[in-house]
Amino acid sequence: MKTTEHRAPAIRVQDLTLAYGSTLIMSELSFEVYSGEVMIIMGGSGSGKSTLLKSLIGLLPPASGKIYFESTDFWSAAEKEQNRIRRHMGVLYQQGALWSSMTLAENISLPLEVFTQLRPKQIKDVVSFKLGLVGLSGQEQAYPSELSGGMRKRAALARALALDPKILFFDEPSSGLDPVTARRLDDLILELQSSLGTTMVVVTHDLDSIFAIGSRAVFLEADRKTMTEIGDPREMREASNNPSVREFLNRGRGEERDQRSDYRSLTHKVSA
Fold first, then answer.
1. Helix segments in the chain, DSSP class H
2. What is the pTM (predicted TM-score) of this model?
3. What is the spatial distance between Cα 226 and Cα 213, in angstroms, rounded to a whole number?
4. Are 246 and 240 in contact (CB under 8 A)?
5. What is the spatial distance between Cα 171 and Cα 8, in angstroms, rounded to a whole number?
6. Which end of the chain has a smaller Cβ tally under 10 Å, C or N?
7. Which of 105, 161, 106 is closest to 134 using CA atoms?
8. In this predicted structure, what is the pLDDT of residue 186?
9. Roughly what angle, to the nearest 10 degrees, separates helices 104-115 and 120-133?
10. In this model, does residue 196 exceed pLDDT 60?
11. pLDDT digit string (tens) for 89-99?
12. 143 vs 53, 95, 99, CA distance in Å?
């Protein structure tokens, strides 16, 4: 795993408070996301993960605090500057959010047509390249309804990559996928991070994904309405002093040990 200490932060969250009207969601959030790392935002249901994501991608102003992209305070910047920063973001939404009436080529072409001056032939080449990156070569004319859940996620990822973003945001990328398909998506995320060097922020509660792809993780605790730990999720699972963190990251481990024990016992009986 790459170290992050020598890298400048791509995102810096400072004393952030999130609320809907008078309802406090999270407060005192402060952390950095380093360039080229995969940062996990994790926590149980109702912990504010999706709300934090909305603020990071420019959809929800914070009640207080700052979010810096490199040296720019996003929520204090002029609209033109905010749009410039958004132009360098890609987002994979939980349900993919592909336009059902458009082919994959048309879905991926849309941001290129709106935000670039590329000619139709150039756009066609970019679309084919992005689909190839996610393992969907030759699927340009397919509609989202014709694809499996995993293929739709990959198509949505191709669209998120269309404008060559500096930062990719993922909202529960493995949601709705079977374990095998979810693992393949995790592998794809790691391949893209390694080959493109893109900074990635992943909101998820899925343990397999957390341990497979996360460089570091922020834990949001619903009861305290704040972040209570940050670090390598594997180290946090074994050595955290926070009972809530240990409970969250060790879900199902006892069952897995029991299953392995049962399997060894069965194997021993058969071989005997």
1. 49-56, 79-86, 104-115, 120-133, 149-160, 179-196, 207-213, 233-239, 243-249, 253-271
2. 0.86
3. 23
4. yes
5. 24
6. C
7. 161
8. 92
9. 120
10. yes
11. 999 987 768 88
12. 28, 15, 9
